[in-house]
Design goal:
The structure is a single chain. This protein has a five-stranded parallel β-sheet. Strands 10-9-8-12-11 form a five-stranded antiparallel β-sheet. A three-stranded antiparallel β-sheet has the order 13-14-15, with no helix packed on it. About 5% of the residues have low confidence. By secondary structure, the chain is an alpha/beta fold. About 30% of the residues are buried. The protein has two domains: about 120 residues, Response regulator (Rossmann fold, 3-Layer(aba) Sandwich); about 90 residues, Beta Barrel (OB fold (Dihydrolipoamide Acetyltransferase, E2P)). The radius of gyration is 20 Å and the shape is elongated. The protein is about 30% helix and about 35% strand.
Length: about 240
């Protein structure tokens, strides 16, 4: 538990200078605690799973997972202030109910106003966000010009083809333009296992395995040398 008058902040931006500017500004404001600053959404996911976070300062243009995608994936109790050099994303940012939208370069006065907005809206809330965040049992991916809901429980395995992936479910195969690392960051680690740079498998669908392959729905998927040690150690838990 933490002081309800103090907000715990996470800074997420792939530009070191941008992170430093926000951190310097925030250090001058009372009742703000910076938990960490992260250079990617993947790194930020790890912090959110282990720490209480109230507010994220989130860059939109980042490699692998954009700020918009990240904001859609996290617990809705965690509030977001978008930071970007581009005006184009403002509408989508506010559609996600962002606290504010800051254009770079960010002045201290403008950031102070964003923090004041947060306190005006959420400062009287007495409940604290739990350290272990709620985990959704589904995700949305863009495919065929629409967002498709995929239940984690229905995913058998995921296959990578350069800059797009195939998500094989019980009833369908969904193709989306995404990297396998970006998708891996969204998946609950207790249910899925990366076995190869091109494959992620759902543990519950494993029919059999050897030191070289895992079989899912009669398809043998290779375990690569670089992942073999971690994969076999993980599977030993179920023996």
């Amino acid at each position: 538990m933490h002081n309800t008058n103090t907000i715990s902040c996470l800074i997420v931006d792939d530009e070191p200078m941008a992170r430093e500017i926000i951190e310097t500004h925030l250090s001058k404001i009372e009742n703000v605690h910076i938990v960490a600053n992260c250079n990617s959404a993947i790194e930020a996911f790890n912090y959110i799973g282990k720490h209480t976070i109230d507010l994220v300062f989130l860059d939109i243009n980042m490699p692998e997972i954009s700020g918009i995608s990240f904001a859609k994936s996290i617990n809705k109790d965690i509030k977001v202030i978008f930071t970007t050099a581009y005006r184009d994303y403002a509408v989508e940012g506010f559609e996600l109910k962002a606290v504010d939208y800051l254009l770079k370069p960010i002045s201290f006065e403008r950031l102070q106003k964003a923090i004041d907005t947060y306190f005006d809206i959420y400062g009287t809330i007495t409940e604290t966000t739990p350290v272990v965040q709620d985990i959704s049992n589904f995700m949305f991916v863009r495919s065929d010009r629409k967002m498709i809901k995929i239940d984690y429980a229905c995913i058998r395995y995921i296959e990578s083809y350069s800059d797009y992936i195939k998500i094989h479910t019980e009833s369908d195969t969904i193709v989306t333009r995404e990297t396998i690392s970006a998708i891996e960051a969204k998946l609950p680690k207790q249910q899925f296992l990366r076995i190869h740079r091109s494959y992620i498998i759902a543990i519950s669908y494993i029919q059999s395995f050897t030191n070289e392959y895992i079989t899912i729905h009669k398809k043998a998927l290779p375990i690569s040398r670089s992942y073999k040690k971690d994969v076999l150690l993980h599977l030993e838990k179920f023996q």
